[in-house]
Specification:
Layout (H helix, E strand, L loop, with lengths): L1 E8 L3 H12 L4 E4 L13 E2 L4 H7 L2 H7 L6 E6 L2 E6 L11 E2 L2 H14 L3 E3 L2 E9 L2 E8 L5 E11 L23 E9 L7 E7 L2 E9 L2 E9 H4 L10 H12 L4 H4 L3 E10 L4 E2 L3 E2 L2 E3 L5 E2 L7 H16 L9 H33 L2 H6 L1 H6 L2 H9 L6 H5 L8
Parallel strand pairs: 1-2, 1-10, 2-7, 4-12, 10-18
Antiparallel strand pairs: 3-6, 4-5, 8-9, 9-10, 11-14, 11-15, 12-13, 13-14, 16-19, 17-18
Helix pairs in contact: 1-4, 1-8, 8-9
């Protein structure tokens, strides 16, 4: 049996951020990730400018900037045959803008940085069982593909496994029958697009929404969500992938996108995932701390998923770091859970509610087009909407004032 101060389940942005910050503070950390890196993932891949303090804190800001797409300075709404464009909000006292980087690069950067600080990275491997003990948890880890099992004891367990995949852990999604209102996600990279540098448009189409952004390497990402009931009605000729059928539907419903993709080539294959799970969930369950999408997920329409994942890990790490020698006590973990949950809700609940409203609006193009005259007259409404979604709310800097080192 191996023993660690902390076991983190999931090596995405949330899990790797938590592992990195705790290891830097002197904690012994094991990180379990079921996929081999690098790997592609359905994701909008954009990080707002609010993340620069955290990227610098993690030691990957320069590498991120070198590999990412151009700074994103403008947003737009594409609906029907019309485009409505406006500037993104700026952060007070900062000249920085958000950028996008493919997950195969971002996740690899973060896990490599964590490993360099002494984190024990178990990959590919999966946590299949957690048992509460008097001083923490006992985990059964199954390596892949051979299926060999091992045990890890840890005072703190952090679930960062996302919200899409099912599993037997209490914090994981449980199987459910398909419903017409389920949201399914798709993504592809394109080369040779006509998307202007610095522009990140929101795509509005019947039954769904999407977005595009430059991600570096002369590629642009197109990601989208569509409700199952609409997806199941799409025409899909033999030999046409689900992603291609969705793109055809987007172009029919949102023809203003066509000039952006004229002559563009898909780089690789379409990816799909889901059902996505927007909403707020417990941040501490059965003795396990929860970060990232597993704790709460905004509709991807606001492009804040990675930001929320990494910032939630920072919030938890700030509470945990000074308590390493006390964290084996159950009352201390409960105390941390209460403080972390409060800080999490203050930072992220407003944008989750805002994202839900925007998603319902964007997936009804007739509503968006009805608002067209208002958007033409007052383009700053889009800037205000981006601000409401969290594009200028610097959680890392502001949350520091809420954290103390006293238990």
């Amino acid at each position: 049996m191996s023993r660690f101060d902390a076991l983190i389940i999931g090596g995405g942005p949330a899990g790797a951020t938590a592992a990195l910050l705790l290891a830097e503070a002197g904690w012994s950390v094991a990180l379990v990730e079921q996929k081999a890196f690098p790997r592609r993932k359905v994701c909008g891949e954009y990080l707002s400018a609010t993340n620069w303090p955290l990227l610098a804190r993690l030691g990957i800001a320069d590498a991120f900037a070198d590999q990412a797409g151009p700074p994103v300075t403008n947003t737009a709404i594409f609906a029907g045959k019309r485009e409505y464009r406006a500037a993104l909000p700026r952060i007070a006292g900062s000249n920085s803008w958000g950028q996008a980087l493919p997950r195969e690069h971002l996740d690899t950067l973060l896990v490599a940085r964590a490993a360099s600080l002494g984190v024990a990275v178990l990959q590919p491997a999966r946590c299949v069982k957690l048992t509460a003990t008097t001083d923490g948890c006992l985990a059964i880890i199954e390596s892949r593909p051979e299926g060999k099992a091992s045990q890890i004891a840890a005072h703190v367990v952090i679930a960062a496994h996302g919200s899409w995949e099912t599993g037997d852990l209490a914090t994981q999604k449980q199987p459910a029958p398909p419903r017409g209102g389920d949201w399914l996600a798709f993504k592809a990279h394109f080369r040779q697009t006509n998307l202007p540098a610095g522009l990140m448009p929101m795509l509005c189409f019947a039954g769904g929404y999407g977005g595009m952004v430059h991600v570096g390497g002369e590629r642009a990402s197109l990601s989208c969500c569509i409700q199952r009931r609409r997806f199941e009605r799409l025409s899909r000729p033999a030999g046409v992938s689900a992603g291609e059928a969705v793109l055809t539907h987007i172009l029919e419903s949102c023809p203003v996108l066509q000039p952006v993709l004229d002559g563009a080539l898909v780089d690789g294959t379409w990816l799909s995932a889901g059902v996505i799970q927007p909403g707020i969930r417990p941040r501490f369950r059965d003795g396990v701390f929860v970060v990232g999408n597993a704790a709460g997920e905004a509709h991807p329409v606001v492009a804040e998923g990675i930001s929320m994942a990494m910032q939630s890990a920072w919030l938890l790490a700030e509470e945990l770091k000074p308590l390493r020698t006390k964290i084996d006590r159950g009352e201390v973990r409960e105390h941390v859970a209460r403080r972390y949950s409060t800080a999490w809700r203050r930072a992220f609940a407003p944008r989750i509610y805002a994202a839900a409203a925007i998603a319902q609006w964007a997936s009804r193009p007739w509503l968006v087009q009805a608002a067209g005259p208002l958007l033409d007259a007052f383009p700053r409404l889009l800037t205000w909407g981006a601000r409401l979604s969290g594009k200028s709310h610097v959680v890392v800097r502001e949350a520091a004032r809420l954290v103390t080192t006293e238990c």
